[in-house]
Amino acid sequence: VPELPEVEVVRRGLERWVAGRTVDDVEVLHPRAVRRHGGGAADLVARLRGRTAAVPVRRGKYLWVPLRQSGAASGVAEPDRRSGEEAADDALLVHLGMSGQLLVQPADATDERHLRVRLRFTDGGRELRFVDQRTFGGVAVDELGAGGVPLSVAHIAPDPFDPAFDDAAFARRLRARRTGLKRALLDQTLVSGIGNIYADEALWRARLHYARATEGVTRAEAVRVLDAARAVMTDALAQGGTSFDSLYVNVNGESGYFERSLAVYGREGQECDRCGTPIRRESFMNRSSYLCPACQKRPRHPRW
Ligand SMILES: [Zn+2]
To answer: N or C terminus of the chain with fewer C-beta within 10 Å?
Structure first.
């Protein structure tokens, strides 16, 4: 499952390869890949044709490409009167799901077996392909609301890299919860973009147990785990993103390789880099939590 660093790698790839280009045509090869788009495939195609991609935006694991009216429209699309020439009022939202990939391919490259949606551009260069074996992901055109955030993403909290992210407010809201620390970190309405892997890594770096009751977490500890999450995701980003799913590749078709640098995740039985104690794996929310039982002391009154 792609996490924030992987999605950011995809966003950067889109910025490089797609921003500024105008959609000429769209081909939907599987209806399931556009099921989140209210109007269906024909409407999606109509709303993309002739639109120019602006710089892609990410919030947590959500990714969208704001769409502008094109000055030199191909004549296929009816001008959208709701928007001006510059401001984008809707966006192409991309859900990578479990196995979704965006590939930038030469037009004559053989179609991928699980190709779901194809975007061709008016410049005739490389096309953008959404490929998804399991089709949990998909694309949709969504209206942009306050702050240029798509309406379907508005309920998602900013991620820790958002310039508007408020650390003090995060600590306050976290401490007001009645839940476990890791469960809170995974709650996308509190902070977005921290998934299972990076939650475990951040908790290890901050030396905090995942079942700490949030009301007992100090402000300093809350900020410590937040900073640790930023640090581990920054490291991941510098290395091209983590990938545990061989299906995941970034927009240029390269796999991430950050897994070599993880301290606890997927390292059950191996020694903690800090103290040598074997890393333990525990069941958590139908998944796993990895931790060092010495560095991350189990609380007397755990909250799961
Ligand atoms: Zn340790």
So the answer is: C
Whether 287 is catalytic: yes
Q: What is the separation of C-alpha 39 from the centre of its chain, rounded to a whole number of angstroms? A: 24
Query: How far, in Å, is the centroid of ligand 1 from the Cα of 268?
Result: 12
User: At a CB cut-off of 8 Å and minimum separation 6, what does 110 contact?
Assistant: none
CA 176 to centroid of ligand 1, rounded, Å: 29
What is the pLDDT at residue 85?
43
- Considering all CA atoms of the chain, what is the largest pairwise distance in Å, rounded to the nearest integer? 68
Active-site residue, 182 included: no
Coil, strand or helix at 272: coil
pLDDT beneath 50, residues of the chain: 72-85, 243-248, 252, 255, 257
**What's the pLDDT at 251?**
53
> Tell me, what DSSP letter sits at residue 278?
B
**What is the CB neighbour count within 10 angstroms for residue 138?**
25
Q: What is the distance in angstroms between the CA of the first residue and the CA of the last residue of the chain?
A: 23
DSSP annotation string for 19-49? TT-BEEEEEES-GGGGTTSTTHHHHHHHHHT
What pLDDT score does 12 carry?
86
